[in-house]
Design a protein that fits this description.
The structure is a single chain. This protein has about 200 residues and is mostly beta strands. The protein has 2 helices and 16 strands. It folds into 2 domains: about 35-100, no CATH class; about 105-200, no CATH class. The chain has helices spanning about 145-150, 160; strands at about 15-20, 20-25, 30-40, 45-50, 60-65, 65-70, 75-80, 80-85, 95-100, 115-120, 130, 135-140, 165, 170-175, 175-180, 185-195. The strands form 4 sheets. A 6-stranded antiparallel beta sheet has the order 1-2-3-9-5-6, with no helix packed on it.
Length: about 200
């Protein structure tokens, strides 16, 4: 066993504190999350969009019909997506447990078109566009996103789900939201779309 535990490499150090019985990582609340998916919840029954961005992909735990699955063998995690090695069949369910930290997104795993949830009032986030249903964006400012939406193997299939309106020069993203339980209340979270890891 290494000095970092069972891991073959040491993770970056983080500041972990507990305030009023709330665990915080780098001064942001760390929340235990659980998502449940069934057969038919995704187009390919292999790729599932988590409600929140996992803080550490290897900490994501997946249970298929109550049986624990193995990371790297039975599933992987890319950004906000859990990808199963084998597709679900009729009657299957997966339960996904993970930790998210409010406002955390790993730039190394942020891929174009990925949807991420942030607390209300987060405002502008580098590398992301707010899905608020009102802001008009110019395609000339986001050519990579325009290419992604036009690519039949990527965003073209999701155009109707993500775009409220668009023409040759501009677009408006649909207003999309998530909800989260903060231990006391249900909180509405704003959705953002990623412009990709190389964006700033």
């Amino acid at each position: 066993m290494s000095s970092c535990g069972y891991s073959s490499s040491c993770p970056e150090p983080v500041n972990v504190t507990i305030n009023n019985q709330v665990v915080q990582i780098d001064d942001a609340p760390a929340m235990n999350r659980v998502d449940l998916f069934s057969f038919g919840d995704s187009a390919d029954n292999r790729t599932f969009d988590l409600s929140f961005f996992p803080y550490e992909p290897r900490s994501v735990q997946v249970y298929l019909n109550s049986g624990a699955q193995r990371y790297g063998t039975d599933y992987t995690v890319q950004g906000q997506y859990v990808i199963l090695t084998n597709a679900l069949v009729s009657g299957d369910q997966i339960l996904v447990r993970y930790i998210s930290v409010d406002g955390y997104v790993s730039s190394q795993t942020s891929t174009i078109g990925m949807l991420v949830s942030f607390s209300p009032g987060t405002g502008t986030i580098d590398g992301f566009l707010a899905m608020d249903g009102t802001t008009t964006y110019l395609w000339t400012n986001y050519p990579t996103l325009q290419s992604w939406f036009n690519d039949p193997t990527n965003g073209a299939a999701r155009r109707n789900d993500l775009l409220q309106s668009h023409d040759g020069s501009s677009f408006v993203l649909k207003a999309l939201y998530d909800t989260s339980y903060d231990g006391v209340n249900l909180v509405t979270l704003n959705k953002y779309i990623s412009l990709g890891a190389s964006s700033s």
